[in-house]
C-alpha cells in the first residue's frame, strides 16, 4: 500500500490512520477491505454513522434511483420532492407513532452544525445565553458547539479564546454513589449566588459516546426533564451518536419516556454515511426568522433519499429494533464475561451500555490501546473512548450478521487474553 | 404541487422556497425542472456550488463507478484509495502547475467548518486571537466563523452573545474614492493605541459573493499580502464561493499573483453538489496535533471521487478557464448594457464582477427583488446579494451552454424592462 | 430629615438607604448618629471596612498630621515618603513576623480593582485564562471580577454579555455531608473531558462575607492549597472582607497555616474608611511590565498614612488579635443561644463564623429582613447576607467597647423575640 | 533619598517613579517638593486630578472641618448630610445653570468604575451590547472598561482573553484630510453587513488625554450627537480627564453645545485628589434596580465635602473659567512658538489642545522622552502622551500662579533647545 503521499499531503491532524494505518478500498455491511484485499470486521462503523452498515443495498438502490432520475442533488434549501418525502416519512414513520410533534430545521449537514443551530435557537427563544452541558459530553468542535464539549484536547486548541455561554454539570454517576448530580444541579439553580446563570437550555446525551459509554439512568433522565420543566429551561437531547436505533429505539430518549424540547440527529440519519443532520423542535419554539441561519449544504437531497428509504426499510414496525436489542444483549453478555475475566487478572473492569452502544471500561487507556491494536492485527476495527481512552467501545452496524458479530467478539476476547497474558 | 407538509414541517428559517415557491424535481447542467414539468434556467447554481452544472455527466459517472465498486462511503478520516487519489490529483493538477505547496486539512464538509478550522489554526500557530475580516464579508454562521461575517441578520441571532476574536476593516473601495482602506488598516496596525489587537490573520474574499459582488482590485490584494508579510500576519483567502474556477481561474487569487498562507475551499469543490471542504495551509503552519480538530464527516469519500474527476476533466489545461473567461465577458457586456439602460431610467446602476461572478448594482433592494421575481415568472432562477439585496447576481454554471446563457440574459433584460416600464 | 433631593437625584441603584432611611451625620467607633441626633450601634461597619471603628482617633491623628504637613495627597504612583513608610511597615509589622514574603501591587483603591489585578496577573503569569471560584463567592462587580462573583443580581445586569474566564466549584460544605467538594474539584481536574479548563488560579474567601458567613474548614483550606500546588495552579486568597483582623488574625488564612501565592486586601486596609487596596504576590510572580496596569488613584497617600498608623497601633503584638478573638467568642455564644431559641420556635437556625465575622442562618430571607428592620427601629444597624438574605450578619468594629457590643446583642435578641412572638 | 525598599517591595508595574525617581514629600498648588527639599513645578497634576492644585487651602479647610465634626467617613451608600449637600450643590451650581438634568450614580471611586457602570447601564437600558469607542481612546483598565480602551499595552495584558462588547471607530481627523471619520461611521451604521453590531452607546472623550491631546472638532461632536440620536444610540461623554474645568468649561462638551445621555467624571471631581467618581445619566435612563451595581467605596464622604466646596469656590460664576481660558491661551501661544522652532530644526512639530489641556506633537517618542527628562532635571514635572509617547503634554493645575506657569514654560522651552541643540 502506497501511503507516502497521504502522509506528506494530509495535515498532522489526521487521527484514525494512525491506529489503522492501511488504505481501505471497499466495504459492505460490517466488513471493510484494504488495498491488499485483507478484510476487517467493523466495530466502529463511522463512530455510529453506519448503523445500517456500509453500502447498505436498500439505501444504495434508493440513491442510484435518485441519481438515475437526475434528481436535484444540491439546491440550497429549495423545496424538492425529495425533501417533502423526507419530511412526510419522518412524520409518518417516526414522529407520529411515538406521539411526538416537531418542526424540522435542516442546518448544515453535520452534527456540530445541528448543535450550533439548536443552542442558538434555545438562546433566541429564551432570551438568555447559558447552556448547561455535562462532564464528558461531546457535542462538536465549531466554536459554539465546542463550548458545550468537555474534551480539553479541543478546548485548548482555540488559540486561547475562552469558550463562553455554557456551564458544566456532573453527569449521572459522576459524583460517585453518595452524591446525586441532579441534587447538585437543583441546588445551584435555586441558589441566587451559586454562579450558575439561569440556563436557556440543558443539552444532554442519554448515553455519552465519546465520553466513554456513560449511560444516564432512566430515572435520572426523567428527573432532568422535570427540573427543566420546573425552571423554564429547555431540554435538548443530542441524539447524534445514540440516535437512529443505536440504543435499540429510534430515539435514545424513548427508553426514559421523556419528550425533549429540541433534538439533534446526524451521523446515521442519512443511513448511508452521507453528511446530513437535522434539528427537531417543539413547533412553538420555532422562533427563527427566514434566513437567520444558513449554510450552503443545508438540505442534502441525496441524503433525503437515503434517509427516507432507511426509515421505510427499518422503522415501519418493531422488527428491527427488537433485533438490535437482541444483539445488544449478545454483546452485553460477552462484554460482561470479558470484563469479569479482566477483573480476575487484577485489573478492575466493567461493562456498560444500552442497546448496541456498549463498552468495557478498563480504567487504563494504555491497556485499552494495546487491546484495540491487537484486535486490528487480528482483523477487527474497534476504538476506545472515554477521557483517557480507557473504554473499549463497540459501535458495530446494527445490521451486522450474527456470524460477524460473534467473530468480532471472539477476536476482541482473544486480543484481551493475548495482551493480558 | 403539494406544499402544505413542507410549509407545516419545515422551520420558519427556510428562505429560498419563499422566492421560488415551487417543488423542484430534476436538474441537468443549467436547467431546473419543477414538479409540473416547467423548466427554469439556473443563474444561481447553488450559490456557486454547481460550477460544473447540475448532474454533470462526467462527475456522475465517477460517482456511479465508485458506488458500483462498493467503495468506502464513510470512514471518518481513514486512509482510503479515494482520498489518496484526491490528494495526489490536487497536487498534480492544481497546486504544482501554480507553484503552490500546501498541506491539506479535511475538516467537516462545509464552508463554515473550513473557516472555523482555518482561523483556529491561525490562532494556534500565531499564539494570538485577533482575525481581521472585512465589511460585507461572509464566512459562515457557526459561532467561530460568524465572528468574521458581517451580516447583522446572523450576528443578531446569537441570543445576545457578543461575537469575539475579530475586527472588521473596510474592504477595497468601501471608503469611497478619496480614502484608501489599506492606508487605514496600516495606520491602525502601526498605532499602539488604535484599539486593533495585532491580528493573527486576515481573512478575505477576493470577490465578495454574499456581500454584493464587491471586487477587490489586484493591486489592493497584492498590497494586502505585503502588509500581512510585513506585520507577521497570516493571509487567509476564503475561496469558498469565488474559487473552483468561478472567476476564470481555479483559485480566485491567481489573478493577483499572491500566495495566501491558508486557503479555504468548499461549495464547488466536489463538483457535484456534495458537501465537501478543505483547508490548504503552508506546510510549516501545520501546527495541529493529531485529532485536535475532528468531525464525523471529515473526508467524504464520494466527494473525493467526484472532486478528483472534476479536476481531471476541467483543469488539466487552460481550455476550461478560457471558456469561463469568454462567457464572463458575455455576461459583463450584457450587464453593462442593462445597467446603462437602468441608469437612463433615472436609477443609477452599475455592473461589476470577475469571470462568471457578476452583478448589477441597482442601489435598491426592492427594485432588485421585483426584477428577480419577474425573472422567475419568466423561467429564470436568479438571486440578489449585497447588504440590502440591491445587487442582482449571476452565478450560472460555468458549463452553461451559450444558448442557455443568452436566454437567461434575455429573460433578465426583459424582466428589468417590464419592472421599470 | 430632608430626603427629597436624595431620592430625586440619586440613582435607583441605591440600596442601604432603603433599609436605613435616615440621614447620618456623625460617627465614632461603633456608634452612628443621624440628623435628628439619634444614635445607633453599628454592627455593619461599612461591610467590614471599619474594623477600627468610625473616626478612630489614632488614625485620625495620623491623617491630620499628614494633612498639616502638606504631604502629597495624590501623586499617581509617584514614590512618596508615605508610600515608603507604608511598604516598610507592612513588611516589618505584618509580613516578616508571619514568615511571608510578598511584593506589593497598588492598583486602583477598591476591592474589585485588586481582584481584577490579581486574576489578570495570574493569567499573565500562567499563560492560561481559567480562574476557579466558588459558589456564593463575591469578588466585585467590574467585568473581570464579576466573572468570579456568584450573585445572579449582578451577573444578569451585564446587558446580556456572558461573563467569561471563570468556572465555579462548590465551596466547603456546599454538597452536604456525604460529598466532599474538593473530591469533586480534584476529579474534574484529573479528567481530560470534564469541561474544566486547567485553571490559572483559584480565588477563594476563607470566610464568605456576602455569601452568608460560610466558613471554609481549616483542613479544607489546606487541602485546597495542596491541590493547587499539585496541579500548578495559583492560590489567590481574597481577604478583602475577612482580612485585616476580622477573623481574629491579620490575614484570615493564618488560621489554616497556608501561604497563598496572591492575596488581595482592601476595605479595612486603610483603617479609616479611605478607598485603598493592594495585591500581595509571591515575588517571582511579579510578571508585570512597567505600566501594564494603571489607574489614577493607585496609591492613595492619605490611606498610606492611616494604614501604616493602623498597623503600628494594632499589630505590633498579639494584644489586639486576642481581644478580637475574645469578643468573637462573646458573639458566638450569644448567637448560638439566639439560634437555639429560634430553632425552638420551629425555625431551624444555626450560628456560624470565625472571629468577629459571624452570622445566624435563619434559612428565610423575609424573616431575617424583619429582624434587621426591627433592630434598626431599636437602634442597631445590622444587615443580612447570603444568597437569599437569610443570614443576619455581625461585622461590628473590632474596637467596639464591650458595653456597645452587649447592647447591640441585646437589641438583636429582643428584635428576634419580638418578630417571632 | 532612600529608595531601596520601594524598589524591592513595589511591583514592577510601577511607572512614574521610573521617570521621576525621587521621593516626594510635600506639595502646594503647582509645586512639588522632594525629600531633599528640591522643588518642582508640576505640569502633570495627577494626570488631570489636581485641577485645583495640591492641597488647595479652601478644599483642605472643608476637609478639616468635616473631620473635626466626626462626620461619617465611610458609609457604603448610606444617606449622609455630606452626600445630600454634594448632590444639591451639583444640581444648583453645575447642572441647572447649564440646562442639564441628570440623575447621579455613585459607583466605586475611580474612573474605570464609572466607565464600567456607564456602559453597563447603556447595555441594560438598550438591551444590546455593542459600545462604539474611538481610536486612541482611554477609558480605564478593568475588563469592561478595557474593551473600550485602545492601548495595546493594556489590551495584551489580559492573559489572552479577547476583550468583547466594543468596536473602534476612527476619531476626528484619524483618517487624514480627505476622509471624514463620521462618514465612515454612518456608512457602517447604515450597512446591514458591515460587521458593526448596532451600538447601545458611543463613548467619547472630547479631547483625548492619554491618546495624545487629540481634539475633537465642535462640529464633529455635534454631528456625532446627531448620528446617535438618529440611530437610537446613547452618547456617553467620558469627561474624566477633560472635565472639571480642564478645557475652560466645567464639562468639556459645553463648547460644542451637546447634551450627552450619560457623563462620567472622576479625577478632579473631588478637587483634592481624593478617589471619587460619578456617572450622570438622563433621568429616564436610570434602569438600575436597587443594588444591581455595588462597591464598598461608592460614595466617599470626604470627597463629597471637598467636591461640594470646589463647586462653591470655583463655579458659582464664570471668573474661574475665564481665567482658565486666559491661561490656556498663554500655553497655546508658547507651545506654538516652541513647535515652530522645533519644526525649523527639521522635526515637524505642532501644538494642539483646548483650554489648559495642551500638547506639542513631536512625532517622535524618543525625542519627547529626552525633553521631559531634561525638564525634570531642570525642575519641571511633565509627561508625554500619545500612542508612541510623542506628545509633550501640559496638564498644570488650573490654579497655577502665572509666575509658575511662565517658569514652567521657560524650563520646557530651554529643555527643548538643549535637547535639540
Automatic annotation (TrEMBL), chains A, B, C, D:
Enzyme Commission code(s) on record: 2.6.1.76
Matches recorded under CDD domains: OAT_like (cd00610)
Keyword flag Transferase: yes
Record-level Gene Ontology MF annotations: diaminobutyrate-2-oxoglutarate transaminase activity
Hydrolase listed as a keyword: no
Domain of life: Bacteria
Record's keyword terms, sorted: Aminotransferase, Pyridoxal phosphate, Transferase
Cofactor(s), by name: pyridoxal 5'-phosphate
Broad enzyme group: transferase
Pathway involvement of the protein, from the record: Amine and polyamine biosynthesis; ectoine biosynthesis; L-ectoine from L-aspartate 4-semialdehyde: step 1/3
InterPro entries assigned to the protein according to its UniProt record, in alphabetical order: Aminotrans_3, Aminotrans_3_PPA_site, Dat, Ectoine_EctB, PyrdxlP-dep_Trfase, PyrdxlP-dep_Trfase_major, PyrdxlP-dep_Trfase_small
Family membership noted in the UniProt record: Belongs to the class-III pyridoxal-phosphate-dependent aminotransferase family.
Protein name as catalogued: Diaminobutyrate--2-oxoglutarate transaminase
Species of the source: Billgrantia bachuensis
Amino acid at each position: 500500500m502506497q501511503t507516502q503521499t497521504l502522509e506528506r499531503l494530509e495535515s498532522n491532524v489526521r487521527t484514525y490512520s494512525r491506529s489503522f494505518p492501511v488504505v481501505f478500498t471497499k466495504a459492505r455491511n460490517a466488513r471493510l477491505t484494504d488495498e491488499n484485499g485483507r478484510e476487517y470486521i467493523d466495530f466502529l462503523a463511522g463512530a455510529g454513522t453506519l448503523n445500517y452498515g456500509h453500502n447498505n443495498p436498500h439505501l444504495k438502490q434508493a440513491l442510484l434511483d435518485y441519481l438515475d432520475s437526475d434528481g436535484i442533488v444540491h439546491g440550497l434549501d429549495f423545496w424538492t420532492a425529495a425533501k417533502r418525502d423526507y419530511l412526510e416519512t419522518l412524520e409518518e414513520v417516526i414522529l407520529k407513532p411515538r406521539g411526538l410533534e416537531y418542526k424540522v430545521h435542516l442546518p448544515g449537514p453535520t452534527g456540530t452544525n445541528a448543535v450550533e443551530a439548536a443552542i442558538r435557537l434555545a438562546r433566541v427563544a429564551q432570551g438568555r445565553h447559558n447552556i448547561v452541558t455535562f462532564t464528558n459530553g461531546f457535542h462538536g468542535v465549531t466554536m459554539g458547539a465546542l463550548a458545550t464539549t468537555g474534551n480539553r484536547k479541543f478546548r485548548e486548541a482555540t488559540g486561547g479564546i475562552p469558550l463562553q455561554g455554557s456551564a458544566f454539570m456532573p453527569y449521572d454517576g459522576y459524583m460517585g454513589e453518595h452524591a446525586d448530580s441532579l441534587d447538585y444541579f437543583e441546588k445551584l439553580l435555586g441558589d441566587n449566588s451559586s454562579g450558575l446563570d439561569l440556563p436557556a437550555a440543558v443539552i444532554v446525551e442519554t448515553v455519552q459516546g465519546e465520553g466513554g459509554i456513560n449511560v444516564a439512568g432512566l430515572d435520572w433522565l426523567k428527573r432532568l426533564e422535570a427540573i427543566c420543566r420546573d425552571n423554564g429551561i429547555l431540554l435538548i437531547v443530542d441524539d447524534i451518536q445514540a440516535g437512529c436505533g443505536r440504543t435499540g429505539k429510534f430515539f435514545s430518549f424513548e427508553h426514559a419516556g421523556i419528550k425533549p424540547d429540541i433534538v439533534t440527529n446526524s451521523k446515521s440519519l442519512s443511513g448511508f454515511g452521507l453528511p446530513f443532520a437535522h434539528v427537531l423542535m417543539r413547533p412553538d419554539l420555532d422562533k427563527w426568522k427566514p434566513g437567520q441561519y444558513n449554510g450552503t449544504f443545508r438540505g442534502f437531497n441525496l441524503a433525503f433519499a437515503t434517509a427516507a428509504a432507511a426509515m421505510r426499510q427499518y422503522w415501519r414496525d418493531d422488527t428491527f429494533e427488537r433485533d438490535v436489542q437482541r444483539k445488544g444483549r449478545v454483546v452485553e453478555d460477552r462484554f460482561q464475561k470479558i470484563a469479569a475475566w479482566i477483573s480476575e487478572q487484577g485489573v478492575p473492569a466493567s461493562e456498560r451500555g444500552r442497546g448496541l452502544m456498549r463498552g468495557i471500561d478498563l480504567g487504563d487507556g494504555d491497556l485499552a490501546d494495546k487491546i484495540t491494536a491487537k484486535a486490528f492485527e487480528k482483523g477487527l476495527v474497534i476504538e476506545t473512548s472515554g477521557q483517557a481512552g480507557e473504554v473499549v467501545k463497540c459501535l458495530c452496524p446494527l445490521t451486522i450478521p450474527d456470524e460477524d458479530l460473534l467473530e468480532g467478539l471472539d477476536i476482541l476476547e482473544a486480543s484481551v487474553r493475548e495482551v493480558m497474558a
